[in-house]
Amino acid sequence: MTDKKSSLPSFKKPLLQFHELSSDLSELSLKRYKRSQTERSRIYNTINLWVRKSSSKLITRATWGLTPKVKKDIFLKVIDRIISYGHEVWYQDKVKLNLKVLQLQRIGLLNVTKCYSSVSTEALQVLAGIPPLDIKLKNDISSSTATRSSALKELSFSRTRSRS
Questions:
Q1: What is the dihedral of CA 58, 64, 67, 68, to 10 degrees?
Q2: How far is it, in rounded angstroms, from Cα 51 to Cα 133?
Q3: Highest taxon of the source (predicted)?
Q4: Whole-prediction pTM
Q5: Burial of 41 from C-beta contacts in 10 A (0-12 / 13-18 / 19+)
Q6: Which of 40, 51, 85, 143 lies at 20 to 30 Å from 160 by C-alpha?
Q7: Are 66 and 60 in contact (CB under 8 A)?
Q8: Average per-residue pLDDT in the chain?
């Protein structure tokens, strides 16, 4: 009769130490995390590129036979409002932000005017007859601030009258 104990392999030390296993797992999870970060950034960049280049072209596609006036109206009523949505909250008169706003406006202006991409943004604004978006945002903010301050003065004046 063979002894069952002798038929089993005997291990004097474990195959993996716990600290080796945990370091291997942490390296593996770090690699997975980095890979998922790069995949996320790649997906984000792809979506961003599609939105910037394709979405405005879908609106002003040449095969639709839209007149330049209609294209301009679509730009002013749709794309311009999408770009400037919530500008009272996020817009500050900073050079870097103004350049970014003008870059976003440029994409739509290129599709409205059907010019070459080498044409300057200022020339596109003149050709389309659309004012620069940063100046428009500044004017909207200053007018809304003036309206709010006058409304607050009227409100405070009416409260002081009712108390007397």
A1: 20
A2: 19
A3: Eukaryota
A4: 0.52
A5: exposed
A6: 143
A7: yes
A8: 73
CA torsion sign, 129 to 135 to 140 to 143?
A: negative
Q: Which amino acid is at 12?
A: K
The conformation of residue 66, written as its DSSP 8-state character, comes to -
Q: With the CA atoms of 93, 97, 101 and 104 taken in that order, what torsion angle do they form, in degrees rounded to the nearest 10?
A: 180
pLDDT of residue 161: 60
Which position has the token pair 């009227």? Answer: 154
- Alpha-helix residue ranges (DSSP H) falling in the chain: 4-7, 18-50, 56-59, 68-74, 80-83, 87-90, 95-113, 121-128, 133-163
Crossing angle for the helix pair 133-163 and 95-113, to the nearest 10 degrees? 120
Contact at 8 Å (CB) between 54 and 107? no
Q: Which two tokens stand for residue 80?
A: 């311009």
How far is Cα 93 from Cα 75, in angstroms, rounded to an integer?
23
Neighbours of 54 (CB within 10 A): 9
86 DSSP assignment: T
Among 39-43, 59-63, 83-87, top mean pLDDT goes to 83-87
